[in-house]
Amino acid sequence: MKTEKVAKKFCVENGKHFKLKDFDPADTAHWKSKEHAAEALQDGIQRMAELQDKLYAQDSWAVLLIFQAMDAAGKDGIIKHVMSGVNPQGCQVYSFKAPSDLELQHDFLWRTTRDLPERGHIGIFNRSYYEEVLVVRVHPEILQSQKTPRQLCGKNIWEERFEDIRSFERHMARSGTVIRKFFLNVSKKEQKKRFLERLEEPEKNWKFSASDIRERKYWDDYQKAYEEMIGNTATERAPWYVVPADNKWFTRLVVSSVIVETLEALQLGYPKVDEAKKKELEAAKAVLVAKK
Ligand code: ATP
Ligand code: MG
Question: Is the pTM of this model over 0.70?
Answer without folding.
Answer: yes
